[in-house]
């Protein structure tokens, strides 16, 4: 089993600016139920409303998230 370092943080609005894309370390922004990195075109799902899943392996393509209306049914 692959060991993955999982960083799950409870997000508050003012914490958003402390988040960075794990892939490119760039700025991210919130959109619907996702945290978006426009540089990588990845959408990281926010679970249970306040827990962003910042794993590249779990991220959606922004185009997929857009098609879903920036909604998902994932949870912890
Ligand atoms: Zn990125």
Which key phrases capture this entry?
76 residues, mainly beta, N-terminal domain of TfIIb, five-stranded antiparallel beta sheet, 1 helix, 22% strand, disordered N terminus, binds zinc ion
Question: Judging from the principal axes of the Cα atoms, what is the shape?
Answer: globular
Number of domains: 1
The helix-and-strand class reads mainly beta
Number of helices: 1
Question: In the CATH hierarchy, what is the architecture at level 2?
Answer: Single Sheet
Order of helices and strands: EEEEEH
Associated small molecules: zinc ion
The whole-number mean of residue pLDDT values reads 85
Strand content: 15-25%
- Text of the CATH class: Mainly Beta
- Distance between the ends: 20 Å
The parts where pLDDT drops under 50 for at least 5 residues are 1-7
- What is the radius of gyration computed over CA atoms, rounded to a whole number of angstroms? 11 Å
Largest sheet: 5 strands, antiparallel
Structure description:
The chain is mainly β. The protein has one domain: Single Sheet (N-terminal domain of TfIIb), CATH 2.20.25. 8% of the residues lie in helices and 22% in strands. It is built from 1 helix and 5 strands. Strands 1, 2, 3, 4 and 5 form a 5-stranded antiparallel sheet that branches. The protein is globular, with a radius of gyration of 11 Å. The model is unreliable at 1-7 (pLDDT under 50). It binds zinc ion. Residues 21, 23-24, 26, 37, 39-40 line the site of zinc ion.
């Amino acid at each position: 089993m692959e060991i993955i370092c999982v960083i799950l943080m409870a997000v508050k609005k003012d914490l958003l600016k402390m988040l960075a894309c794990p892939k490119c370390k760039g700025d991210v922004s919130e959109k619907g139920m996702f945290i978006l990195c426009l540089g990588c075109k990845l959408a990281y799902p926010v679970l249970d409303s306040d827990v962003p899943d910042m794993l590249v392996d779990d991220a959606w393509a922004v185009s997929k998230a857009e098609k879903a209306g920036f909604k998902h049914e994932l949870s912890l």
